[in-house]
Design a protein that fits this description.
By secondary structure, the chain is α+β, with helices and mostly antiparallel strands. It is built from 16 helices and 23 strands. The N terminus and C terminus are likely disordered.
Length: 487
């Protein structure tokens, strides 16, 4: 499916979930199903679960939503007390079943499954190198590169042991660059890894006597697990029959001068009921809205959000400004990310399938509309016109993030730079295009003031163009035209 052009939003990346309860429970796949359901917002293309009872790996993957793929009959065929799962929204590799995760393989080191949230910036170059050496790939996903590198690892530990798995992981990840929060599962262990810059989130939880790893804390809430802590950037968490232990992914390596935690997780991707990077997402988004009201006030009668992601920021804007809050737009929750468009003549109904204006809330009023971002501007334009058609006297658009002017290469599916309206238009030009009476964004500086943290702890390349990891060229392909810092 790729970039969600219909709703003009950046695409959520992927979500991972794993539970280790061997010897304590035989319902690992059921818990993983629930965890993936809570992470469904992070990917709607495909989902998969791999489970084990300590003897073999059981695998099921499918295209579509978690609830549609994992029926009771399917879950009954995924026995055991340990499992990992994945929901996917493709960022590297086409949308097809062959790219669904977790990937499950049998190699010299034993049976192993892998689930990946993120994107490898040198994946193409490594793939070309491996293919030149005889490797045969079954998918177009960059994640499979990690599997091939693990198969080539020369760790001295006995195959099939936790030590062998961990050694192969270390050797493989020493070759890759980019963003990765990974879960590995064998018959003997579950391993969670986060890249040294911490681009994508990963948390550790406790469910009775078992351990849980997940992309977001909301997945822990659903199964009534306790949030223990965030997995640290560059940390390797090992869970097996001996319990849990933590190690540095690259012992002795110098820690990065700055972290790359994705600030857009706070703005849009994560669920508002999650705790992300140690902060309540809901509280952070309200803070963005309050800062937005300070920086871009306007005389108005009502503040309305673009649901659902704009709601907390709109509440913050309303509280700070003293302008009443109302749900002036209603979203349909029964429309998927794509829908059949049999004729060109009905394509303009795309936004109306998802949103409709509440005329009684906005008729005759000066309206502030709060959204989290503008990507191409096409949907914002339609929303503004919809509000005017419902009788608004004025429409003032407020965005609780800086202008999105650069594509992401660390696990978010974004349009090309040419498609991003902020890459080639000023704020005034964008305001005229979307037909708003005024338009205000948070600046990058104001974003971190509202967040209450230093910019050094985050990646904001989609706003600034400051990419934190260098890109490798692969044979026959040119590197993207980027400004790069760090590396």
């Amino acid at each position: 499916m790729g970039y969600d052009a219909i709703y003009d939003k950046l695409a959520d990346e992927c979500g991972v979930f794993g539970i280790w309860a061997l010897g304590q429970s035989e319902e690992a796949s059921n818990f993983t199903y629930l965890g993936l359901h809570a992470l469904q917002h992070r990917g709607q293309e495909s989902a998969g679960i791999v489970s084990t009872e300590g003897q073999v790996l059981h695998v099921h993957r499918g295209m579509g939503l978690v609830a549609d793929i994992f029926t009771a009959d399917v879950l009954a065929k995924l026995p055991g007390g340990a499992a990992i799962g994945h929901v996917r929204y493709s960022t590297a590799g086409a949308s097809s079943l062959k790219n669904a995760q977790p990937l499950a393989v049998q190699y010299a080191g034993g049976a192993m499954a892998l689930a990946h949230n993120g994107n490898l910036v040198n994946g193409d170059a490594l793939r070309a190198e491996l293919e030149a050496q005889g490797s045969i790939f079954q998918s177009t996903s960059d994640t499979e590169v990690i599997v091939h590198l693990m198969a080539r690892a020369r760790t001295p530990a006995k195959p099939g042991t936790t030590e062998h798995l961990v050694g192969a992981i270390r050797e493989a990840l020493a070759r890759v660059a980019g963003a990765y929060s990974l879960l590995f599962l064998s018959e003997k262990a579950m391993v969670g890894v986060r890249d040294p810059m911490g681009f994508r989130p990963l948390v550790l939880g406790r469910h009775k006597g078992s351990w849980v790893l997940a992309s977001e804390s909301t997945a822990l809430d659903l199964i009534e697990a306790e949030l223990v802590r965030e997995v640290e950037p560059g940390e390797l968490v090992i869970i097996d029959g001996e319990g849990l232990r933590s190690e540095r992914l690259f012992p002795g390596a110098e820690r990065p001068a700055r972290l790359g935690r994705c600030v857009f997780e706070h703005i849009y991707f994560a669920r508002p009921d999650s705790v992300l990077f140690g902060r309540s997402v809901y509280d952070v988004r309200q803070g963005f809205g309050r800062q937005l009201a300070k920086d871009h006030p306007v005389a108005a009668d009502v503040v309305i959000p673009v649901p659902d992601s704009g709601v907390p920021a709109a509440i913050g804007y309303a509280h700070q400004s003293g302008v009443p809050f109302a749900m002036g737009l209603v979203r349909s929750h029964y429309v998927g990310r794509t829908f059949i468009e049999p004729q060109q003549s009905i394509r303009h109904f795309g936004v109306k399938l998802k949103l409709n204006a509440v005329q009684s809330a906005i008729r005759g009023k000066r309206v502030v509309v709060v959204d989290d971002s503008i990507v191409r501007g096409t949907t914002s334009r339609k929303i503004v016109k919809m509000i005017r058609a419902a009788g608004a006297a004025e429409v003032h658009l407020r965005i609780s993030s800086p202008p999105t002017a650069w594509p992401c290469y660390y696990g978010i599916d974004t349009p090309t730079r040419q498609e991003l309206i902020a890459a080639s238009h000023s704020v005034d030009e964008i305001a005229r295009y979307v037909t708003a009476d005024s338009l205000g964004y948070l600046s990058i500086e104001a974003l971190y003031v509202a967040l209450g943290e230093a910019r050094q702890g985050f990646c904001d390349a989609c706003f600034s163009g400051d990419y934190l990891v260098n890109f490798a060229r692969s044979p026959g392909r040119s590197a993207p035209p980027l400004r790069l810092v760090g590396g």
